[in-house]
Amino acid sequence: xxxxxxxxxxxxxxxxxxxxxxxxxxxxxxxxMGWFRQAPGKEREFVAAISRAGTTTxxxxxxxGRFTISRDNAKNTVSLQMNSLRQEDxxxxxxxxxxxxxSTIDLDYEYDYWGQGTLVTVSS
Length: 124
Hints:
Distance between the termini: 37 Å
Number of helices: 0
Shape: globular
């Protein structure tokens, strides 16, 4: 699966951004999809994930209630709507695909394919 993330940019605290990730190459609906992020000087961390059919989602506690993950299997896309952004949300955001089980959905090493990342900068 080839993944192409887009939608990053500069936004003020309290604002919103919508990230998108376009997939190609393999059957998109065979994969759970996730978003991870890596802030400068920090390890990559899990943000959100959505199941193959889009019926189940999971969020990191730091973004729950502010971010929403969704997917469109007909268009081979996954999105991350980010609201009420905070300075601590500043990071490079990566979309990723995994064929592994749902129980390990927040573990980055379980993911098989990664997009190139898109930078989100939240200013004060």
